[in-house]
């Protein structure tokens, strides 16, 4: 499974009497890319003999993991699981039950017997890989203590590095008397210690710093480098606090002075050293790995890249980093819950791992974001092919329990040394490319480029400035009139403008798409709503029958779940009557079933609901009937050519006729000429909006329009 799994193979015991299921499990273990050594027991008695290491199985290593079928000849799998639970040594081994039984009694009995996981046959490959990934990354590397090969099943082998035979005999006698579980293997030099540590696993190391071939802390450094995660206790004849402190700082778990204390004291030092090391490894694991997937996190990924990149680049090699973001996870978490979402994440990781070439580094760098590093001489070609394969695999349907759903992916690629020659910079390049891929759709692949980075920096700067604009009073609303068939102003659309301190006056098309990609659109939408209503309430001073105000609502505002409450607060604070508020939404938002309840509730307040840009999406009579709609705004693309293109004129006439039958008002956008106005009125359109009717105006200009003796229009009032 990439760089994280190297070294000793995992000992796995499969207890299964069906040859076909044995072959299937062997194949799934290959797919999981776990370095393992598999032993198979075809019945419960054989499995128990292998676990207790009796007779022919005296030298059988204890497994790191047991895969157990419940329905076995002879000793039943349920009974075997309980025998394992009752054995203090065997109970520490994780057990995954693989069985056809879905009976509640079997499931309860299995978990009561401390089974780690229960999977029903036929086994889903994604689920199996997720389980193996969790066990491989956490349980086997952090929790399980090394198993001994001595006479006792619960024996804990300890390497004693001591060149004085008398001291070695004394330590052996003291430990045997205090706790016979500790079985000492004695060596007398650093070279022998390094040789043994390279060949065998030990529960702990007892180390004398004064050896024939090494002295002092240099001995400790050398042994720690070879011992890796094994806990180490320094045993010295020097009662030196400074030396003891430096030994602990270097990585020893304890410092014991020879001749001080008895066997209990020494046994306790070993026991505490082992437990401290386990706690330390657990904390290091939690700090460097993702809690859901068990994969290395962003920090660990960057540390690995820092070690791998320099020597590879010096040899003329390449490092390609892929950043993969899963799309659609928010909807899964929201509709099915985070438990299902977590299983979906693990399934996606399993799919990625199946495609990863040997030596690929995989990490989880965000909630739904992953990073892969391909380290080859032709890394970019390999990474490009891998990106296509990953995207195809991630798009396949997911099944978790009874739920089936689809996810997508965005992938960005960066290459060292072309794009960057440092790990953090290379990861940033890949992330930049991934963000750019997201601009083109819900799934896609993109490569990093300097132009891409420049554009991204400009966008980030604009977003930062836009956040400041909210508090620096740089935003302003303009109002574009909407008139009826007689030219009377019946409504006005509130349009946002940004008085940028350097770029001048910006229209919404220059900054709103950026805000839509972040939570910033919620703050802007709230500001527009409150400001528009506060201005509209003053129009009653200009005319006895004041016009309505139309406010655009984005999909993110609707998704946030508090639109109804926000509208209520804006109405209450402004004093505007609900009947004078029109909320404009696009067709794509209207088509979503979850929008119906909110829009119906808003309509019950007396608010008008309008579909903006009608005709540009997947227009459907069914949702016009199902959703609460009062107004349709025909998109300007149809209106522009309605005077010259008979097909556009027919489409506009059909929309108007359909809407009027349903009791829906129609607004034609893009009325730019007297000809447009004449034709649209003949077609039966009862509301018009466009530059010929009136350009967007400041609040003061619009109020002046309303105060004019003749507040009708037949031409451009700009």
Automatic annotation (TrEMBL):
The keyword Phosphoprotein applies. PROSITE patterns: EAL, GGDEF, RESPONSE_REGULATORY. Residues 445-472 form a coiled coil. It comes from the Bacteria. Residues 459-710 form the EAL domain. The keyword RNA-binding does not apply. Residues 317-450 form the GGDEF domain. Pfam families: EAL, GGDEF, Response_reg. Keywords: Coiled coil, Phosphoprotein. CDD domains: EAL (cd01948), GGDEF (cd01949), REC (cd00156), REC_Rcp-like (cd17557). The modification 4-aspartylphosphate is found at residues 69, 208. Residues 11-136, 157-273 form the Response regulatory domain. NCBIfam families: GGDEF. This is EAL domain-containing protein. It comes from Tahibacter harae.
